[in-house]
Amino acid sequence: MKREPSKIKSDILLRVRLLYLLFMAAGALVLGRLVWVQLFSGEVAYNARRLAGRIFTEETIPAQRGNILSRDGEPLATSIFRYQVAFDFASEGLDSLRTFHEQADSLAKLLSAFFGDRPAAEYSRFMRREHDRRYRLVNGRDTSVLRAEGFFARILNRLRGEEYERRRIYDTLRDHTPVPLFPREVDYAEWERLRRYPLLNWNMGMVYRLVERDQRIYPQGELARRTIGLTGDRGNYGIEDSYREELAGRDGRAQRQRIARGFYGRVPGGDHEDPLDGMDVVTTLDLDLQDVADKALRRQLTAQNATWGTTIVMEVSTGEILALANLGRNADGTYAERENYALGRSMEPGSTFKLATMLTLLEDARMPVGTVYETHNGDPVTIGPARNIRDSHRGDRAIDFRRATASSSNVYFAKAMWDLYGKTGKKFDYSNFLHERLALGETVGLERFGERAPQVTSDWKAPDPGVMLVKMAYGYRVRLAPIQTITLYNAIANGGRMISPVLVRELRRNGRTEERFRTRTIRDEICSRATLRTVHECLQAVCTEGTASAFFRDTLRLRVAAKTGTAQITDARSREGRHYLGTMVAYFPADNPRYTVLTTIETRAQAGKAYYGGPLAGPVVKRMVDYLYARGSDWSARAARTGRHCYPERIKGGDIAQVRRIAGKFSPDVDYDRRRGWGRVKIDSASRVRIVSLPDEADRMPDVRGMGLKDALFVLESRGLRVSFAGRGAVTSQSIAAGARIRRGAVVHIVLK
User: Fold this and answer.
1) What is the domain partition of the chain in residue ranges?
2) Which end of the chain has fewer CB atoms within 10 angstroms, the N or the C?
3) pLDDT digits over 25-53, tens only?
């Protein structure tokens, strides 16, 4: 009989086969998963990136912003690094409370002495309090630990029954939020000192990170602020905004590896790119001249209680702007650089626009210089369709072109323009000349800095084109920014060649010039040589017998060509009172122009205050001309060679009252800080006399250089000194230096020449 296989054996074999198949399937699944992860899935790369992200990080290295410099290299805007310590009071390096308290107390004393803002005890309490807040022990529990780790020590402890001991352990809660430690940011020199203090020198590990910040500072304060500009939360404008990309540079990057919680070190050989610092912007501004312009403009605005003003100084041959002051009145009555009026205020210029009218009449209409018009002694008249045209002064009736320019006659130029362009229907010839020959319909190239486009009509589609023509003759119905007005006058000073103003000379990086900016020729020739000579003579007549004669009548030292202008602001009717725009433009020396100066001031008609262009803007222009003349020693020498230089080159010091009387007879400008006492005398190249008083300290040696013998003996002997002398004339040297401490009876030797 055939024996059947055991059922148990069959079940076992089945189970084995099933398990085998199960293992095979599991192996295949694992293998497939591995192949998928390695070849097709991004999981490995993702996990690698996560791990690398926890260990490595990429840090941006900020580029240092470039500087803005004056033409002489003086900083107008620069950047410095500021430092702050972000302390990690939960760092593992501070777990030893005893050591931390000792180090914190020492650091507190040093910080208190360094900053002087609070006592050392407050610093110490602050650090202990922050450490207690951010490092806490919780969930205490008992556990058994070996008394000793060595084999034989454990045997001995086991024999004594003391192999284990009970200890209480705690979980720790750590808050690694960084806490600023210093009461303020510090500069580099301060940080170099602070980093040597306890805890800050990492004597307990990396317990802080250093926060660096690039801070923008303006060493000259408010000087030329609207031109230099600003960058930051209060807005961007000026050169800071116009050249923001060049100044910003390009940030670098570096790969860092985590060393401790929150602290990273640079990876050697890692992906690193050095930052490219921003370029330095070198302006055309002369810092000394800018300071003089700012003070002169500020003084005149305050004296006249004016609304705002601007002063521009331009070099004739290059178009470089040497000074650009813009001051507006604050609510408290003070003045500050509120707006770039020179570029951004396009307004009716008034009589300074008569230069364009003069050029049109002489060059385009070929009007003879001897043409005479009746001006009606300042009474209002009707010219063409325009009514109530009048001059601001009386005394003139039938005058010629030269006298009309000197006295700034509205009636003369309005009649001439109406006769030659209004009656004849040649209005388009007039506007074409303004646009094509004088370029008055276009900007002068400073759009990057906020220059506003001029408004000079060319289509004559106004409701009253005849009235517009007449009023344009003396500076109404057109709008120019001050920078455009001075560009036109600079073209006359430059021999008829109109060039664009230049505000930025070059871009530098690491002292090397990257880009040089030069002036652009707008028009090669705006008029003929004959017209140019006539205009020169007329503008000089403005200074010798016209509206600027109060400032530049004296031609012995320097001849100036100028034009004044006054315009009532028609769009200010909603404001209180009548508002005026007063302007003066001058270039000098008239025989060889080197500088062009413009001042424009807006003010309100007030009792006892000026609002005409001459008395309103003239004092500022006069101050700038005098200062520039004083800096040109060659001019002074040239004037002396002519034989008309009547001012003394040297005045002896002595009694201030006597010196004042003597100096007043020779110089129109005498300045002194005290009315009585003793003083020394200085005379600059413009023949301005400056009397500097001697200090009153009886125990200090006075400076008697420049005094005569009699005065020097009196001053020295009155302080108990014994005097010996040699020579004659004025004191040139003294044996005891000025300012040195002296004692009565001491001997001092002086030499006179």
Assistant:
1) 7-41, 75-219, 288-633, 654-752
2) N
3) 888 888 877 777 666 666 556 555 555 55
